[in-house]
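Re: export button greyed out
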Amino acid sequence: MLRDKKILLGLTGSISAYKALLLVRLLVKEGAEVRVVMTPSAVNFVNPLSFSVLSKNKVTIDFTDNEHQWNNHVDLALWADFFVIAPLSLHTLSKMSSGICDNMLLACYFSSRCPVIIAPAMDVDMYLHPVTQRNLRSLQEDGCILIAPESGELASGLSGEGRLAEPETILEILKRHSSQSLTFDGKKVLITAGPTYEQIDPVRFIGNFSSGKMGFALAESLADRGAQVHLVSGPVHLQIQNAKIKRYDVVTADQMHAKCMELSKDADVIIMSAAVSDFKPQNPAAEKIKKEQQEMMHIDLEANVDILSEMGKNKKPGQLLVGFALETQNEVENAMRKIKNKNLDFIVLNSLRDAGAGFQSDTNKVSIIDANGMITNFELKSKKEVAHDISNMIDTFLHPKSLV
Ligand code: CTP
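Workaround output, generated via the alternate export path:
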């Protein structure tokens, strides 16, 4: 249930932080990817190195690693499928409920879009204090999932409520929420991927270098979250894995257009990531063109239909339309124009200027721009991770007020 899930674990200053080591072990055993963010005072109780070794990832504590290396709290927060804060101290709890953002963990909290699970740990009187209870209620109203502390002997020598829930309990609750986090359950998604080939003669075509990897990764990511995906793909060498993806293979832009018109009618989300050929030969030759027939060769081209524009013209109320743009200059300006002209909700912009981004590569570096001009820049990541970021963005559009 937690396989490949991305868990951001937040540690605050509490003696019970040692229990979080076992939690990391359990999560890694389940196949989850764990990253740890600690408040500076948590470091007084447990050694970050232990968490780094167990999670096999860097532990983040400060906004910068040294004077020049910034730690990006937004990236870390948006990376996570779940943010688990265990143990949550009274101090951090109060800051979370009142909007104080003076460390990396809090910056991640205020930047997160995923479900946040909080497991408080403190002495019994601190826990039962009306201010604490009020703040806990307020965080729950904000969408946090509370794992109540257990009752028993406390580090102070007192007995009562306040002991951090056992790692096994936290794991079980996380699993339960993970199985419920199929946020695209019941949603129909149409995705295009790969290149199109436009026939010159029976053996030649005009095409491009698109591998289809980005569109396929998106299809898997959305299907993993419960969506029923229709994937219309140009010629690629890729396989699908999730049974919730129905694949339709096409070759030309006209075939892709026809399939999209058919499938778009009841789609909740439409994502056009295919590199559709803008032009096609006007009169494809019926027989193979022989070179001795002529010294100069001209192929008259005519424009292909712009499938994304057609989807924009026929957009139904509530339907979400996402385009891709590959630009080499004036990226943002061109992307904004496409959003407006093609009636898009947002566009995923790749710049060919960035090394490791674009066609064929396994990585990509994108910016997402919405119709209001809001830009979210992402770092260079695997296409699988980029798909995860784009899915998160779609989730935000479909469930604007929900934290889940
Ligand atoms: N697209 C499409 N049908 C086409 C051409 C493009 O559906 N015939 C879609 C792509 O899938 C992508 C978006 O349009 O989502 C942007 O494609 P791009 O080639 O970057 O932009 P164009 O609008 O074709 O403009 P230009 O080539 O001038 O940049």
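Residues 188-398 form a domain with the Rossmann fold fold (CATH 3.40.50.10300). The button fix ships in the next patch.
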